[in-house]
Amino acid sequence: MDDDDEPGFRLFHGGLLRGLGRVTRLVRDDRLDIVRQSVALALIAWVPLLGLWGLEWLLTGRFHPPFTQVEVHARWLVSVPLLFAAERIVDERIGVLARYLSESGLVSTARAPELHRLERRVAAWCDSAILEVVLLMIAVSLSAGQVEIGDAPSRWWDSLVTLPLYRFLLLRWLQRWLLWTVLLVGVSRLELDLNGLHPDRVGGLGLLVEPTRAFALVILAIGSAVASVLAMRMRAGVPLGDMMPVMFTYVGLTVGLALLPLVTFAPMLERAKRRTLYHYGVFAQIYVHAFADRWLRGAPGLALGSVDIQSLNDLGGSHNVVREMRIVPFTSRSIAELVAVALFPMLPLYLQSVSIATLATYLVKALF
To answer: How far apart are CA 204 and CA 211, in angstroms?
Structure first.
């Protein structure tokens, strides 16, 4: 990795899980970390569960229904690898964003120490092994009451190992999202040097949306687990229509949580827009008066080929940039992308509920 690509602030650099990963050489800060961690946790949580199900099948002579529980397999074959992949991508983009805030001048030299102190405070919470132990204990306590003395060994393993480990990964992501929110709230209080003329239409904060787009992998991971649970309910006879409230709640909640931290910059952006419109309006008024005095009240033919004509046109274009400035860093396209990612795991459920003839009819109507 080049020095320019070296990540700065990161959400997933430390903590209990990363520490154990480094001790066991599962985490080496390369792209294979995703595979090594996913396989290791699957060997700890998922494979023994399969073995216990198989052993109970051999002892009882009956096929164990959990073998067909799609949600268990979806968690460890799809959701967990996506969660680990999201860690790497989110960290890379947050590292780039941290450098951008300083190198772009958005954070002034005088405010830079405040930014670094904020990053160190948040990083300390991210790297806390004690906090992750607490999260693990919470995850175990949520499942411990679901088993009884006479339950099968597979039931005990699922309730005390498999499900808690998965819940721990989700709680760990929730913790990081909260700390990401704290970081953005702190940055929004630094009074950044926003410029309403910036072509990204958010005063130079357009890069803020990149980590949020990477959070889409987390939405996809959770969505695959949710979709697998809904698939099991459909298999039990529950119609897709009855599950629509759950699906819409999931989409709204995950997309809203992904975008909510960015809303903290709305007051700052709104002030920057008003300030830029005022100063630009004063400048434009002076310019157009000078233009009128020189050209409209003089000989029109002298204006042919004048750079003042092009400057007047550029003035209007720049004013449009300021007028179109948004008060949130994300766009409607960003929202649509996240909604599409959230709904993608639900697509098989819809395809399962409609016939091929119905789909063909929809396709023909759409084309013709």
So the answer is: 15
Domain boundaries, the chain: 3-261+341-367
For residues 88 and 61, what is the distance between their CA atoms, to the nearest angstrom? 45
The pLDDT of residue 5 is 46
CA distances from 321 to 199, 236, 281 (A): 7, 55, 13
Q: pTM for the full model?
A: 0.87
Amino acid 159: pLDDT? 87
Say if residues 247 and 346 touch (Cβ distance below 8 Å). yes
Give per-residue pLDDT as tens, 240-292: 888 899 999 999 999 999 999 999 999 999 999 999 999 888 988 888 888 77
Size of the chain in residues: 368
Residue 38: both structure tokens together: 């996913």
71 and 232 Cβ atoms separated by less than 8 Å: yes
Q: What is the pLDDT of residues 69-81, one digit of tens each?
A: 788 889 999 999 9
CB 136 within 8 A of CB 24: no
Q: Is 233 exposed, middle or buried (0-12, 13-18, 19+ CB in 10 A)?
A: middle
- Across the chain, the runs of DSSP E, i.e. the strands, are none
Cα angle 182-38-215, degrees, rounded to a multiple of 5 = 30
CA gap 341, 334 in Å, rounded = 11
